[in-house]
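Researcher: I'm preparing a figure for a lab meeting and need a structural model of a single chain. I don't have an experimental structure, so a prediction will have to do for now. The sequence is pasted below. Please return the structure as tokens so I can convert it later.
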Amino acid sequence: MALHQGYNIVTEPVADTSNELTALEFFRKLAADQSLECPVTVTGLDDLLYNATEESRSKIIRELQQVLRRTRSIQSMDAVQLYVDGTIVDDNAFRIRIERSQGGVYLNVGQLFVEEPKPISATHSVARK
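Model: Understood. Here is the structure written out token by token.
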């Protein structure tokens, strides 16, 4: 399966990309409108959100959503592979369930995007800005 245009949220890598960034590096580059080589694989979004306090996760997601909306680093034809170590849950809202030593946690990753990610398969969904 190939990457689609936009943000590919995957729990199993779909494509090998020559460019890989951590989530923190990726969002810093977007916030600074730095150029990116696409397609790009972004890792660690699950850890970035999991390691935030439960109270601050929603605020962090809102701030990251604004970065995605404002950036000129990602063009409409570009593909980003957001690799997360978890399970896609698309019931009432798009979320990622991750398991850590303290138990399972649901992360509202779907709130990063204007439109909710659309499922392609059980391990792959695609979203736009």
